[in-house]
Amino acid sequence: MIKSIRSAAVVVKDAKKAKKWYSEKLGFVVKSDEDHWITMAPANAKGFELHLCETKPLEKGNTGILFVVDDVDKTYAELSKKGVKFSQKPIDQGWGKYAMMKDLDGNIFWLMPEE
Q1: Model confidence pTM above 0.85
Q2: Given CA atoms 47, 16, 111, 8 in this order, what sign does their dihedral have?
């Protein structure tokens, strides 16, 4: 039985640049940095990490990964000021409010509040 998710791969074209972006823009910390295995997570996160997977050719698109935030609008404003690009500004669809951001390689992530 699957109990939780340990990590998810995020395909990037340059792992070193991606590591810097996740650190400077989102405040993530490096959990592991061994050759091809670079993982990062929010400083206080427990258990789940993103694996920055350097791959060629680059596969772009929606990762399906959701980051839980306290306030979608506030997070959108803060990240936008840092230069983070969004494919979807905050929107409430009735079933929930969310925004979708892109990293420097075009990977798309969801931002939603915890329910």
Answers
A1: no
A2: negative
Domains in the chain, number: 1
Please give the structure tokens belonging to residue 74. Answer: 């506030």
- Residues 78, 88: Cα–Cα separation, whole Å: 15
Separation CA 83–CA 52 (nearest Å): 20
- Give me the mean pLDDT over the 58-70 stretch: 79
Q: Is 75 left (phi over 0), alpha (psi -120 to 50) or beta?
A: alpha
Which CATH number characterizes residue 24's domain? 3.10.180.10
The residue range of the domain holding 30 is: 7-113
Q: Phi then psi for 30, rounded to 5 degrees? A: -75, 125
Share of the chain above pLDDT 90, in %: 48
